[in-house]
Write a structure and sequence with these properties.
single chain; alpha+beta; Heat Shock Protein 90; globular; transferase
C-alpha cells in the first residue's frame, strides 16, 4: 500500500485509518497503528512541512515482517544518532509530557531507522 497524506493535523488519523483497513485481523495491527501514528505525527511536528507538502505512507508485508515507511520531503529534523539517543531515553526526562514518540516506536517494533537522501527524510519501522 502506498498513500499520500497532505501535511495537515488530519494526517495521523488518515494514516491510522489506512493501516487499520490494510491490517484488519492481523495480530501486528495494534503495534503498527501506534507506531504509524507516532511517526506521522513526528513528520508534522519536526519536518517543518507546509500545508502544500505531502507525507507518503508505505506499507509492505512479506509474510514474516511488516514494514511501514513514512517519507517527507524535509531534510531537517533529527539525525539517526539524535533519534537513537531519544529512543534510548538520553534526551527525555521521566517527567516530560512530550518526546516519547520514538521510545514508543522502539518498544513496539522489532527494528526502526531514519534515512535522509536528497532533501527527503524516511522513517521506517518493522513489526
Amino acid at each position: 500500500m502506498i498513500m499520500e497524506l497532505v501535511a495537515t493535523a488530519d494526517a495521523p488519523a488518515q494514516a491510522r485509518a489506512a493501516v487499520n483497513a490494510s491490517l484488519r485481523g492481523d495480530p501486528r495491527a495494534d503495534a503498527a497503528l501506534l507506531a504509524t501514528s507516532e511517526v506521522v505525527t513526528n513528520a508534522l511536528l519536526h519536518g517543518r512541512l507546509s500545508r502544500e507538502d505531502v507525507i507518503e505512507l508505505r506499507l509492505s508485508d512479506d509474510g514474516d515482517r511488516l514494514r511501514v515507511e513514512v517519507l517527507n520531503r524535509a531534510a531537517i529534523g533529527f539525525s539517526l544518532d539524535e533519534a537513537t539517543a531519544l529512543h534510548d531515553g538520553a534526551a527525555v526526562e521521566n517527567s516530560s509530557v512530550g518526546g516519547w514518540g520514538l521510545d514508543i516506536v522502539g518498544a513496539v517494533s522489532s527494528r526502526w531507522g531514519v534515512q535522509r537522501d536528497g532533501g527527503r527524510t524516511l522513517v521506517w519501522f518493522e513489526v
